[in-house]
Amino acid sequence: MNIELNMILTWPEWSRPCGFSWTSIQERRMTMEQAQATSDRCMRCNRILSNPHSIARSLGPVCYKKSGGGVFDADLQADEKEWARREELLKAGGEIDLGVNWDYPDPGNMIRGYSMRVSVRFKDGAFEAYGCLYKPGKEEEVVFARGQDLKVIYREAIAAGPTATAQAYQARKQAFRQAKRAARRAS
User: Fold this and answer.
1) CA–centroid distance for 112 within its chain
2) Contacts of 17 (CB under 8 A, 6+ apart)
3) Sign (positive/negative) of CA torsion 68, 104, 178, 187?
């Protein structure tokens, strides 16, 4: 099972001022195994993680809660009848929305620029976890995961909102630090 993630999972190397572009996001694809191998730190607060569940999620329990995590976690505990109903709904052209107004990373900008709606759909013979990014005058789509197993794709969709919100928080924090350093140098 090879699932590709379009999420930026490591900020320090990527957080350069005014370096935001959609092509750079698309170039930074990682497989799930690569992402789990490199995520020993919390992507929101950058602390070292020790709990295996937190390491797999790349967020500590406090940061997961602060990033809006836990809202849709109970959806994964559905019985097989419910999973079959969801699969039928998606294959009929429907979508399952998993929250709106999630933050999305906008490096170099201290002001929240993007909000995102996370959904699951069936497109071109595979299930997709994707996000619609909204910014004044722009609307983009980012596919987080694509595959045949609905449960895996659903899990990725549930994780996408808190993950992106945590990354956006870290990006704003780094932009603030850079602005603070620039102000100190200027004075």
Assistant:
1) 15
2) 107, 108, 175, 178
3) negative
N-to-C CA span, the chain: 54
- Angle at which helices 80-91 and 150-186 cross, to 10°: 70
Q: Could you tell me which of 62, 54, 50, 46 has the C-alpha nearest to residue 167? A: 46
Q: Return the number of other C-beta atoms located less than 10 Å from residue 145's C-beta.
A: 25
Residue whose structure tokens are 């097989």: 80
Closest by CA position to 95, among listed 150, 159, 29 = 150
Query: Domain residue spans in the chain?
Result: 4-186
Q: Rounded distance, CA 55 to CA 8, Å? A: 16
Q: Of how many residues is the chain composed?
A: 187
Tokens 């549930």 correspond to 158
Nearest Cα residue to 160 out of 106, 78, 97:
97
pLDDT (tens place) for every residue of the chain, 187 residues total: 444 444 433 333 333 333 333 333 333 444 444 444 556 889 999 899 998 989 988 899 999 999 999 989 999 999 999 999 999 999 999 999 999 889 988 877 778 778 899 999 999 999 999 999 988 888 889 999 999 999 999 999 999 999 999 999 998 888 899 999 999 998 8
Residues sharing a CB contact under 8 Å with residue 13, sequence separation 6 or more, in sequence order:
none
The whole-angstrom separation of Cα 152 and Cα 65 is: 21
